[in-house]
Amino acid sequence: MIYEFEGKTEREAIELAAQELGLDTSSFDVEIIENQSGGLFKKGKVRIRVHTKDAPRQAQRDAPEEKSEKQERHDVEPIPMDDFERKMVEWTKEVIEHMGYSSDVSVAFREPKKLGLRIDTESASILIGKKGRNIDALQLLANVYAGTLGHNDMKIVLDSENYRLRREEALVRIAYETAEEVRRSGRSVLLEPMNPFERRIIHTTLNDIIDIETKSEGEGLMKQVRVMLKGRK
Prior knowledge:
By secondary structure, this protein is α+β, with helices and mostly antiparallel strands. It is built from eight helices and nine strands.
C-alpha cells in the first residue's frame, strides 16, 4: 500500500503517517518526494510517500465497504523514474559502493531543472563529511555526470539525513547572530569560507535588514562573507 502525508518536518510527516495508519514507524518505508526548506520567516514543508505491506489497523477494523476516507485520500500510485533519473540513481549508488559503503538511493523531489536524490546509508556521517564537504564533492561529480547525459541545465541535489535542511537552518542562525554581533561591536565580521550555495543563504537572509550589508571576499569557489554595518568597512 502507498500513501502520501505532509508535515512541517520529515519527523512530523512520519509521525502523522504512523498515527493515521495506526502503524509503528518501523513497519513502513518512507520516501521524501518534496522538501521545501524553512527559514526564520517561512515555514518548511515536507511531503512523504509511505510504502507499507501491512494493512492499517483502522482498515482491519472496518469492513471492506467501509474503507476509511483518509486511506482513500492518501492512497496513490508511485511516480516511476524516467531513464535519466534511473541513470542518476544507479550512478550515485555505484560511486558510493566504490567508496566502500553501501547505500539506497531514491528520488527525493522533482522540480523544474532540479532533481533531488536521497541517500540512505549507515555511513551517512562519513558520506556527508565535515561541513558537508564530501557530499558537496559527490554532488559536483553528479552534476558533471548529468551533463554527460545531455542535461547540463539540470541541477542535481544530493542529500542524506536531511543534511541540506539542517545546514540551511544553521546558516540562517549564524547570519542573524553575526548581524547582532556586528551591531554590538560596530566592527565587521568575516565568516568562514563557504561554497556559493551557503554564501547565497547568508546574503539572502541579511539582505532585507536595513542597517546590515554583506559582501563576498576571496578567490576561487570557497569564499568568505563579510557582514558589516552599512556605510562601514
